[in-house]
């Protein structure tokens, strides 16, 4: 931080920043629930046994800190936060080398979807047009072949007819 006790957050990974935030939260929680406030809440007991009140307070604070740390660790484990934080750090590090700004939603879902779908549809249309041209060319060749086959059949029929008449 600015007091020189810790490195700047940019130098730390997100997992370390998260741990630092939890530790700071615990420090402030303990500070907010000071021994003096605790003793004021249990004034009668404090007047009778101040040492016991102090011992109970210390146990309470210790158990509270342990409980919060265990809960936070359980959340980190269940959510796989260490891996996710490290992954996010890598993504941010890779993005630093990008020269063009990252895409951000406009707030209008139709436009956001259109900006993603339209290039895909245009590419698909181009592909379909290419396939259509190929099929049309193939059909022209087949049609030409069919017409040539018909002409050949007509020619053969005429030849058969001529030979039949010649034979009779």
TrEMBL record:
Stretches assigned to coiled coil: none
Keyword check for Oxidoreductase: no
GO biological-process terms attached to the record: cell division; chromosome segregation
Entry keywords, A to Z: Cell cycle, Cell division, Centromere, Chromosome, Kinetochore, Mitosis, Nucleus
Pfam families linked: Nnf1 (PF03980)
Main location: nucleus
PANTHER family: POLYAMINE-MODULATED FACTOR 1
Protein's recorded name: PMF1 factor
Organism: Rostratula benghalensis
Recorded name of the encoding gene: Pmf1
